[in-house]
Specification:
The chain has 173 residues and is of the alpha+beta class. It has a single domain, classed as CBS-domain (Roll), CATH 3.10.580. It has six helices and five strands. It has a three-stranded mixed β-sheet with strand order 1-2-3. Strands 4-5 form a two-stranded antiparallel sheet. Strand 2 and strand 3 form a beta hairpin. The longest helix has 24 residues.
């Protein structure tokens, strides 16, 4: 311990916080939420009606360069999700007969969703445990967006980078 150090005493006045310790410089709690991710990514959602064919779904996946589609019913409500993985499984089960089948016959019906208020860590954990890569975001019963495991991991890495920078600033002053 340096000889100039003196432990705080009961009557000492509180020192002013340095700039690196100010409230403004602390990590933004909202940055760890799905809403923050959607605000940056955008909340466009590519959907397909459950009555469409797998051939139509494959074309949309190809054209939009995405890995999953939100499936909606005739009223526009969330009915399921159709991923590349769902299609590949069906191709293996029914070779040469898959493309004319309907999306409803092949989609995942029990869709795990998240809300805008969920944290990145909660969503990442649910995706890892469920072994899926796409999760619809539902807010107030309405579809608010779609996040992928890549979106969540990238956002979380940016958050950790920011936290590391804040810690460096605390240490350096």
């Amino acid at each position: 311990m340096p000889t100039s150090y003196q432990a705080p005493m009961a009557g000492d006045k509180a020192k002013q916080a340095s700039a690196s310790q100010s409230v403004e410089s602390k990590a933004n709690v909202e940055a760890g939420k799905i809403k923050y991710l959607l605000d940056r990514k955008g909340n466009d959602v590519i959907t397909i009606n459950q009555s469409e064919t797998i051939a139509a779904a494959v074309q949309v996946l190809h054209d939009k360069r995405i890995g999953a589609l939100i499936v909606v019913d005739d009223m526009g409500a969330l009915a399921g999700i159709l991923s590349e993985r769902d299609i590949v499984r069906k191709l293996a089960e029914t070779p040469g007969q898959t493309l004319p089948q309907t999306v409803a016959e092949n989609m995942t019906k029990n869709v795990v969703t998240c809300s805008e208020d969920d944290t990145l860590i909660e969503v990442l954990r649910r995706m890892s445990e469920g072994k899926f890569r796409h999760m619809p975001v539902v807010n107030g019963g309405m579809l608010a967006g779609m996040v992928t495991i890549g979106d969540v991991v990238n956002s979380r890495l940016n958050e950790l980078e920011f936290e590391a920078l804040q810690l460096k600033q605390l240490i350096v002053g």
